[in-house]
Specification:
Blueprint (H helix, E strand, L loop, with lengths): L1 E6 L5 H9 L2 E5 L6 H6 L2 E4 L10 H12 L4 E4 L1 H9 L4 E17 L4 E13 L10 E3 L7 E3 L5 E4 L15 H6 L4
Parallel strand pairs: 1-2, 1-3, 3-4, 4-9
Antiparallel strand pairs: 5-6, 5-7, 8-9
């Protein structure tokens, strides 16, 4: 069982259910956590949530700490935007936000199409050195993932749904589990 620390920025119940279904033991970060929790975990999950990623600057130092000690990090949606900013990607507000279900994403590495749900108004700029960015929106060619080649860190713009809606991307946790192999 992989023990993860959840940095909850507005996580949906369906995401909790998916984490448990994928055999993760969840410690939720709060101001009362102490170092003993950090010593127990194998990884960090940064959740989705509402709004502008710059409104969460208080969490930046915590996330930078985990990046510094090279603990595996998985992030989705807002969490993805935050780790992208911390990895020196430029971010911007989309002219038209991505909201709802049935968003087509292409994995340019294997040409596989994935249908997912999204709910965001911000995104990050294209590819950087030392990162494998292979997922792109077929609506507007916006970048949809970050995968560091120098530290155990991945993030996806979309939501792996555990309830109604598309669930092509439920296997997001397989990408994260490969960090441990």
């Amino acid at each position: 069982m992989i023990k993860i620390l959840l940095i909850n920025l507005g996580c949906k119940i369906s995401i909790f259910k998916l984490l448990i279904k994928n055999n993760y033991f969840i410690y939720e970060f709060n101001k009362n956590n102490n170092i003993s929790i950090i010593l127990k975990i194998n990884g960090v999950f940064i959740s989705n949530g509402p709004g502008n990623p710059l409104n969460y600057k208080k969490k930046f130092y915590l996330i930078l700490f985990f990046m510094f000690i090279k603990i595996p990090i998985l992030s989705i949606c807002l969490g993805y935007q935050i780790i992208s900013i911390l990895n020196k990607y430029n971010f911007y507000k989309l002219k038209n936000g991505h909201h709802g279900v049935n968003h087509p994403i292409i994995n340019k590495n294997n040409k596989k199409l994935i249908i997912n749900s999204q709910n965001h108004n911000f995104n990050i700029k294209k590819k950087k050195k030392n990162y494998n960015n292979s997922f792109y929106s077929l609506f507007d060619n916006t970048l949809q993932n970050i995968n560091s080649l120098i530290q155990p860190l991945i993030g996806f713009q979309n939501h792996p749904e555990g309830c109604s809606g598309p669930n092509d991307f439920i296997n997001i946790f397989n990408y994260y589990n490969k960090i441990y192999e």
